[in-house]
Amino acid sequence: xxxxxxxxxxxxxxxxxxxxxxxxxxxxxxxxxxxxxxxxxxxxxxxxxxxxxxxxxxxxxxxxxxxxxxxxxxxxxxxxxxxxxxxxxxxxxxxxxxxxxxxxxxxxxxxxxxxxxxxxxxxxxxxxxxxxxxxxxxxxxxxxxxxxxxxxxxxxxxxxxxxxxxxxxxxxxxxxxxxxxxxxxxxxxxxxxxxxxxxxxxxxxxxxxxxxxxxxxxxxxxxxxxxxxxxxxxxxxxxxxxxxxxxxxxxxxxxxxxxxxxxxxxxxxxxxxxxxxxxxxxxxxxxxxxxxxxxxxxxxxxxxxx
Length: 306
Ligand SMILES: C[S@@+](CC[C@H](N)C(=O)[O-])C[C@H]1O[C@@H](n2cnc3c(N)ncnc32)[C@H](O)[C@@H]1O
What we know:
By secondary structure, this protein is α/β, with parallel strands linked by helices. It is 32% helix and 16% strand. It is built from ten helices and eleven strands. The strands form two sheets. The chain has an eight-stranded mixed β-sheet. A three-stranded antiparallel β-sheet has the order 9-10-11. Helix 6 (147-154) links the parallel strand 4 (132-138) and strand 5 (160-165). The chain is globular, with a radius of gyration of 20 Å. The mean pLDDT is 92. Residues 42-43, 45, 71-73, 95, 135, 137, 164, 166-167, 169, 173 line the site of S-adenosylmethionine (SAM). S-adenosylmethionine binds next to strand 2 and strand 4.
Protein backbone atom coordinates (compact mmCIF):
# COMPACT_ATOMS: atom_id res chain seq x y z
CA UNK A 1 0.00 0.00 0.00
CA UNK A 2 2.30 2.78 -1.21
CA UNK A 3 1.89 6.05 0.70
CA UNK A 4 1.46 7.94 -2.57
CA UNK A 5 -1.76 6.02 -3.20
CA UNK A 6 -2.95 5.31 0.33
CA UNK A 7 -2.12 8.62 2.01
CA UNK A 8 -4.10 10.59 4.61
CA UNK A 9 -6.84 11.46 2.08
CA UNK A 10 -7.52 7.87 1.12
CA UNK A 11 -11.07 6.78 1.93
CA UNK A 12 -10.68 3.43 3.67
CA UNK A 13 -13.66 1.08 3.86
CA UNK A 14 -16.19 1.90 6.58
CA UNK A 15 -16.02 -0.76 9.30
CA UNK A 16 -19.48 -2.18 8.50
CA UNK A 17 -18.27 -3.03 4.98
CA UNK A 18 -15.52 -5.27 6.35
CA UNK A 19 -16.40 -8.87 7.23
CA UNK A 20 -16.56 -9.62 10.95
CA UNK A 21 -14.38 -12.42 12.33
CA UNK A 22 -17.50 -14.55 12.71
CA UNK A 23 -18.40 -14.01 9.04
CA UNK A 24 -14.88 -14.90 7.93
CA UNK A 25 -14.92 -18.03 10.08
CA UNK A 26 -18.31 -19.06 8.67
CA UNK A 27 -16.99 -18.69 5.13
CA UNK A 28 -13.79 -20.52 6.05
CA UNK A 29 -15.87 -23.44 7.36
CA UNK A 30 -17.81 -23.51 4.08
CA UNK A 31 -14.57 -23.49 2.05
CA UNK A 32 -13.16 -26.29 4.20
CA UNK A 33 -16.35 -28.23 3.52
CA UNK A 34 -15.51 -27.89 -0.18
CA UNK A 35 -12.02 -29.32 0.31
CA UNK A 36 -9.82 -26.42 1.39
CA UNK A 37 -7.17 -27.56 3.90
CA UNK A 38 -4.90 -24.55 4.30
CA UNK A 39 -5.83 -21.05 5.44
CA UNK A 40 -3.53 -18.03 5.10
CA UNK A 41 -4.16 -14.59 6.58
CA UNK A 42 -2.50 -11.95 4.45
CA UNK A 43 -3.32 -8.58 3.02
CA UNK A 44 -2.71 -5.62 3.29
CA UNK A 45 -1.09 -6.12 6.64
CA UNK A 46 -3.09 -8.64 8.66
CA UNK A 47 -1.66 -7.65 12.05
CA UNK A 48 -3.17 -4.15 11.85
CA UNK A 49 -6.59 -5.76 12.26
CA UNK A 50 -7.32 -5.41 15.97
CA UNK A 51 -7.42 -8.65 18.00
CA UNK A 52 -6.53 -10.78 14.97
CA UNK A 53 -5.71 -13.64 17.32
CA UNK A 54 -9.47 -13.95 17.96
CA UNK A 55 -9.94 -14.79 14.27
CA UNK A 56 -7.08 -17.29 14.42
CA UNK A 57 -8.77 -18.99 17.36
CA UNK A 58 -12.07 -19.23 15.43
CA UNK A 59 -10.29 -20.69 12.38
CA UNK A 60 -8.32 -23.15 14.50
CA UNK A 61 -11.59 -24.68 15.73
CA UNK A 62 -12.71 -25.67 12.23
CA UNK A 63 -12.54 -29.43 11.67
CA UNK A 64 -10.49 -30.35 8.62
CA UNK A 65 -8.09 -27.40 8.65
CA UNK A 66 -4.63 -28.87 8.19
CA UNK A 67 -2.64 -25.63 8.18
CA UNK A 68 -3.17 -22.04 9.34
CA UNK A 69 -0.55 -19.45 8.55
CA UNK A 70 -0.09 -15.72 8.17
CA UNK A 71 2.09 -13.43 6.07
CA UNK A 72 3.20 -10.21 7.74
CA UNK A 73 5.61 -7.33 7.31
CA UNK A 74 6.71 -8.07 10.88
CA UNK A 75 6.23 -4.58 12.29
CA UNK A 76 3.75 -5.70 14.94
CA UNK A 77 4.94 -9.28 15.26
CA UNK A 78 7.01 -8.85 18.42
CA UNK A 79 3.84 -7.77 20.23
CA UNK A 80 1.57 -10.37 18.65
CA UNK A 81 3.56 -13.60 18.18
CA UNK A 82 2.74 -15.18 21.54
CA UNK A 83 -0.99 -14.44 21.35
CA UNK A 84 -1.16 -15.73 17.77
CA UNK A 85 0.59 -18.99 18.69
CA UNK A 86 -1.66 -19.47 21.72
CA UNK A 87 -4.69 -18.92 19.50
CA UNK A 88 -3.61 -21.78 17.23
CA UNK A 89 -1.40 -20.27 14.55
CA UNK A 90 1.12 -22.94 13.56
CA UNK A 91 3.67 -21.14 11.42
CA UNK A 92 4.35 -17.75 9.87
CA UNK A 93 5.85 -16.02 6.85
CA UNK A 94 7.65 -12.70 7.35
CA UNK A 95 8.50 -10.32 4.50
CA UNK A 96 12.00 -8.89 4.56
CA UNK A 97 13.68 -7.60 1.41
CA UNK A 98 17.14 -6.71 2.73
CA UNK A 99 19.29 -6.71 5.86
CA UNK A 100 20.32 -3.17 4.92
CA UNK A 101 18.09 -0.49 6.44
CA UNK A 102 18.34 2.00 3.59
CA UNK A 103 17.59 -0.64 0.94
CA UNK A 104 14.76 -2.08 3.03
CA UNK A 105 13.13 1.29 3.50
CA UNK A 106 13.49 2.36 -0.10
CA UNK A 107 11.79 -0.81 -1.23
CA UNK A 108 8.96 -0.81 1.24
CA UNK A 109 8.02 2.79 1.92
CA UNK A 110 7.71 1.94 5.63
CA UNK A 111 8.72 3.83 8.73
CA UNK A 112 10.23 0.96 10.74
CA UNK A 113 13.75 -0.47 10.54
CA UNK A 114 15.02 -3.97 9.73
CA UNK A 115 15.72 -4.42 13.47
CA UNK A 116 12.00 -4.26 14.19
CA UNK A 117 11.33 -7.10 11.72
CA UNK A 118 14.17 -9.17 13.23
CA UNK A 119 12.67 -8.65 16.71
CA UNK A 120 9.35 -9.92 15.35
CA UNK A 121 11.03 -12.98 13.84
CA UNK A 122 12.74 -13.73 17.15
CA UNK A 123 9.43 -13.41 19.00
CA UNK A 124 7.81 -15.80 16.50
CA UNK A 125 10.58 -18.31 17.09
CA UNK A 126 10.29 -17.96 20.87
CA UNK A 127 6.52 -18.50 20.57
CA UNK A 128 7.15 -21.82 18.78
CA UNK A 129 5.88 -20.82 15.33
CA UNK A 130 7.63 -23.15 12.88
CA UNK A 131 8.80 -23.29 10.24
CA UNK A 132 9.36 -19.56 9.84
CA UNK A 133 9.60 -18.52 6.21
CA UNK A 134 11.16 -15.25 5.12
CA UNK A 135 9.95 -13.73 1.83
CA UNK A 136 12.41 -11.54 -0.05
CA UNK A 137 11.10 -9.89 -3.23
CA UNK A 138 14.07 -9.21 -5.50
CA UNK A 139 13.93 -6.06 -7.61
CA UNK A 140 16.62 -5.26 -10.16
CA UNK A 141 18.78 -2.30 -9.19
CA UNK A 142 17.24 -2.04 -5.72
CA UNK A 143 18.04 -5.07 -3.60
CA UNK A 144 19.80 -7.64 -5.78
CA UNK A 145 22.98 -6.86 -3.84
CA UNK A 146 21.18 -8.01 -0.69
CA UNK A 147 20.67 -11.59 -1.94
CA UNK A 148 23.88 -13.06 -0.50
CA UNK A 149 23.61 -11.10 2.77
CA UNK A 150 20.10 -12.42 3.32
CA UNK A 151 21.23 -15.97 2.54
CA UNK A 152 24.13 -15.59 4.97
CA UNK A 153 21.87 -14.28 7.75
CA UNK A 154 19.25 -17.03 7.50
CA UNK A 155 21.50 -20.02 6.71
CA UNK A 156 21.73 -22.45 9.58
CA UNK A 157 18.81 -20.91 11.48
CA UNK A 158 16.15 -23.45 10.48
CA UNK A 159 14.23 -20.63 8.79
CA UNK A 160 13.46 -20.90 5.08
CA UNK A 161 14.40 -17.88 2.98
CA UNK A 162 12.31 -17.58 -0.19
CA UNK A 163 13.34 -15.34 -3.04
CA UNK A 164 10.43 -13.98 -5.11
CA UNK A 165 10.59 -12.49 -8.58
CA UNK A 166 9.19 -8.95 -8.58
CA UNK A 167 5.63 -9.03 -9.96
CA UNK A 168 3.24 -6.42 -11.33
CA UNK A 169 0.85 -6.76 -8.40
CA UNK A 170 -2.34 -4.79 -8.96
CA UNK A 171 -0.77 -2.76 -11.79
CA UNK A 172 0.08 -0.13 -9.17
CA UNK A 173 3.82 -0.54 -8.96
CA UNK A 174 4.94 0.64 -12.43
CA UNK A 175 6.24 -2.83 -13.18
CA UNK A 176 8.60 -3.45 -16.11
CA UNK A 177 10.26 -6.70 -17.14
CA UNK A 178 13.58 -4.93 -16.61
CA UNK A 179 12.82 -4.82 -12.86
CA UNK A 180 12.74 -8.60 -12.62
CA UNK A 181 15.79 -10.55 -11.53
CA UNK A 182 15.03 -13.99 -12.99
CA UNK A 183 14.89 -16.88 -10.54
CA UNK A 184 17.72 -18.69 -12.32
CA UNK A 185 19.99 -15.69 -11.77
CA UNK A 186 19.06 -15.54 -8.09
CA UNK A 187 19.91 -19.25 -7.69
CA UNK A 188 23.22 -18.73 -9.47
CA UNK A 189 24.06 -15.77 -7.22
CA UNK A 190 23.49 -17.79 -4.05
CA UNK A 191 25.09 -20.92 -5.49
CA UNK A 192 28.29 -19.04 -6.33
CA UNK A 193 28.86 -18.34 -2.63
CA UNK A 194 26.95 -21.11 -0.91
CA UNK A 195 26.67 -24.18 -3.20
CA UNK A 196 23.12 -25.48 -3.63
CA UNK A 197 21.36 -28.59 -4.87
CA UNK A 198 17.69 -28.98 -5.84
CA UNK A 199 15.20 -30.71 -3.54
CA UNK A 200 11.94 -32.42 -4.61
CA UNK A 201 8.74 -30.44 -4.05
CA UNK A 202 6.83 -31.16 -0.83
CA UNK A 203 3.60 -31.50 -2.82
CA UNK A 204 2.25 -31.00 -6.33
CA UNK A 205 1.68 -27.33 -7.07
CA UNK A 206 4.11 -26.08 -4.41
CA UNK A 207 4.75 -22.44 -5.27
CA UNK A 208 8.43 -22.33 -4.31
CA UNK A 209 11.11 -24.47 -5.94
CA UNK A 210 13.30 -25.84 -3.18
CA UNK A 211 17.10 -25.94 -2.98
CA UNK A 212 19.29 -26.99 -0.08
CA UNK A 213 22.74 -25.84 0.89
CA UNK A 214 25.23 -28.60 0.11
CA UNK A 215 26.92 -27.99 3.47
CA UNK A 216 23.71 -28.86 5.36
CA UNK A 217 22.85 -25.31 6.44
CA UNK A 218 19.19 -25.71 5.48
CA UNK A 219 17.12 -24.82 2.45
CA UNK A 220 15.88 -21.89 0.39
CA UNK A 221 12.92 -21.47 -1.94
CA UNK A 222 12.62 -19.62 -5.24
CA UNK A 223 9.29 -18.31 -6.50
CA UNK A 224 9.55 -17.71 -10.23
CA UNK A 225 6.11 -16.28 -10.83
CA UNK A 226 7.25 -14.21 -13.81
CA UNK A 227 9.76 -16.36 -15.69
CA UNK A 228 8.05 -19.67 -14.92
CA UNK A 229 4.44 -18.91 -14.00
CA UNK A 230 2.49 -21.64 -12.26
CA UNK A 231 -1.13 -20.65 -13.01
CA UNK A 232 -2.08 -24.18 -14.05
CA UNK A 233 -1.09 -25.59 -10.66
CA UNK A 234 -2.65 -22.76 -8.66
CA UNK A 235 -5.29 -23.89 -6.17
CA UNK A 236 -5.71 -20.63 -4.24
CA UNK A 237 -9.00 -18.93 -3.58
CA UNK A 238 -8.73 -15.41 -2.14
CA UNK A 239 -11.27 -13.72 0.09
CA UNK A 240 -11.00 -9.94 0.44
CA UNK A 241 -11.68 -8.01 3.64
CA UNK A 242 -15.05 -6.91 2.27
CA UNK A 243 -16.10 -10.43 1.40
CA UNK A 244 -15.37 -10.84 -2.31
CA UNK A 245 -14.01 -14.08 -3.65
CA UNK A 246 -11.18 -13.77 -6.18
CA UNK A 247 -9.91 -16.74 -8.15
CA UNK A 248 -6.58 -15.07 -9.04
CA UNK A 249 -4.11 -12.71 -7.35
CA UNK A 250 -4.46 -10.45 -10.39
CA UNK A 251 -8.23 -10.66 -10.82
CA UNK A 252 -9.90 -7.27 -11.08
CA UNK A 253 -13.38 -8.70 -10.58
CA UNK A 254 -14.43 -10.42 -7.35
CA UNK A 255 -17.56 -12.40 -6.56
CA UNK A 256 -19.60 -10.92 -3.73
CA UNK A 257 -20.17 -13.36 -0.87
CA UNK A 258 -20.99 -10.71 1.73
CA UNK A 259 -24.46 -10.11 0.28
CA UNK A 260 -25.17 -13.83 0.64
CA UNK A 261 -23.76 -13.92 4.18
CA UNK A 262 -25.82 -10.96 5.26
CA UNK A 263 -28.89 -12.04 3.32
CA UNK A 264 -30.77 -15.18 4.19
CA UNK A 265 -28.58 -17.67 2.31
CA UNK A 266 -27.79 -20.80 4.30
CA UNK A 267 -24.38 -22.47 4.23
CA UNK A 268 -25.41 -24.88 1.47
CA UNK A 269 -26.44 -22.00 -0.81
CA UNK A 270 -23.16 -20.18 -0.18
CA UNK A 271 -21.20 -23.37 -0.82
CA UNK A 272 -23.05 -23.81 -4.10
CA UNK A 273 -22.17 -20.26 -5.15
CA UNK A 274 -18.49 -20.76 -4.28
CA UNK A 275 -18.40 -24.05 -6.17
CA UNK A 276 -20.03 -22.53 -9.22
CA UNK A 277 -17.45 -19.71 -9.31
CA UNK A 278 -14.58 -22.14 -8.76
CA UNK A 279 -15.65 -24.66 -11.38
CA UNK A 280 -15.54 -22.17 -14.24
CA UNK A 281 -12.37 -20.31 -13.26
CA UNK A 282 -9.90 -20.02 -16.09
CA UNK A 283 -7.44 -17.42 -14.80
CA UNK A 284 -3.96 -17.57 -16.22
CA UNK A 285 -2.85 -13.98 -15.91
CA UNK A 286 0.83 -14.70 -15.27
CA UNK A 287 1.10 -17.22 -18.09
CA UNK A 288 -0.43 -14.74 -20.52
CA UNK A 289 1.74 -11.90 -19.24
CA UNK A 290 4.83 -14.01 -19.75
CA UNK A 291 3.85 -14.96 -23.28
CA UNK A 292 2.96 -11.36 -24.16
CA UNK A 293 5.86 -9.53 -22.49
CA UNK A 294 8.80 -9.18 -24.84
CA UNK A 295 12.10 -9.95 -23.21
CA UNK A 296 10.80 -12.47 -20.66
CA UNK A 297 13.75 -14.78 -20.19
CA UNK A 298 12.85 -18.41 -20.77
CA UNK A 299 15.26 -19.96 -18.34
CA UNK A 300 15.92 -23.47 -17.24
CA UNK A 301 16.78 -23.91 -13.60
CA UNK A 302 18.14 -27.42 -13.93
CA UNK A 303 21.72 -26.26 -14.35
CA UNK A 304 22.40 -26.63 -10.64
CA UNK A 305 22.99 -30.09 -9.32
CA UNK A 306 21.65 -31.72 -12.53
C1 LIG B 1 1.53 -8.36 -0.39
S1 LIG B 1 2.24 -8.98 1.10
C2 LIG B 1 0.91 -8.91 2.24
C3 LIG B 1 1.21 -9.32 3.65
C4 LIG B 1 2.04 -8.40 4.48
N1 LIG B 1 1.63 -7.03 4.47
C5 LIG B 1 3.51 -8.49 4.16
O1 LIG B 1 4.14 -7.47 3.91
O2 LIG B 1 4.03 -9.60 4.23
C6 LIG B 1 2.41 -10.68 0.78
C7 LIG B 1 3.71 -11.08 0.13
O3 LIG B 1 3.75 -10.58 -1.19
C8 LIG B 1 5.07 -10.22 -1.49
N2 LIG B 1 5.06 -9.15 -2.50
C9 LIG B 1 4.69 -7.87 -2.32
N3 LIG B 1 4.85 -7.17 -3.46
C10 LIG B 1 5.34 -8.03 -4.38
C11 LIG B 1 5.72 -7.92 -5.75
N4 LIG B 1 5.62 -6.77 -6.41
N5 LIG B 1 6.18 -9.02 -6.39
C12 LIG B 1 6.28 -10.19 -5.73
N6 LIG B 1 5.93 -10.37 -4.45
C13 LIG B 1 5.46 -9.30 -3.78
C14 LIG B 1 5.63 -9.72 -0.17
O4 LIG B 1 7.00 -9.92 -0.08
C15 LIG B 1 4.90 -10.55 0.83
O5 LIG B 1 5.71 -11.58 1.32
